Predict the structure.
Amino acid sequence: MTCLSSLSDTLTPLVPDTSVLINLHACTFGEQVLRAIPNDIVLPETVVAELNHETSHASGENGFVQRLISENVVKVVQMDDAAVRLFEAMIRSPNSLDDGEAATIAVAVSQGFLPVVDERKGRAQAQGLMNGKAPAWSLDLLVHPAVQSGLGGDLYVEAVYLALRDGRMRIDEERCDAVVQLIGIERAKDCTSLPGYKVRRESWMR
């Protein structure tokens, strides 16, 4: 069973949201992952601002993002008028999103880019705004063929494991079995963010 990336055949610029950056920092290979991927990586100013607080400074997440910016691994952008209108609609709707997630989707939709979003509510809103096209997942970045070859060996597997264990990365149910096979059942037991974790863990313990 192989865990494939939905990004393998696209060079569309990518717009990761805040939780995706947290996953990339948690996996310890985040900068190498983004350098290996051939797509341009765009960060809304709102996303950068969400990681500019005491907790993110203490965890190193802010420093991670600032290095990406200073070394031109990512490009920071402001929302244009179209993105602002989308952003305001998403943060004020009954199913409102947080500012970073809304800004990610707004910038991606207004520019024709692809958002990278893991949370269910944000993915549903993004897909609705993109005529049914699904956004990418953090996992798509980590298992991208360019990342697998760029990191060398099985380091990308370690990156997936650490993003799950320490970043509490969300993944799609459809690829969960493949991810468990990739990292191994013993390490999967540490990853409580896996879909249906409790039920799966019970079956692993039998």
Observations:
- The chain has two domains: 14-139, 152-205.
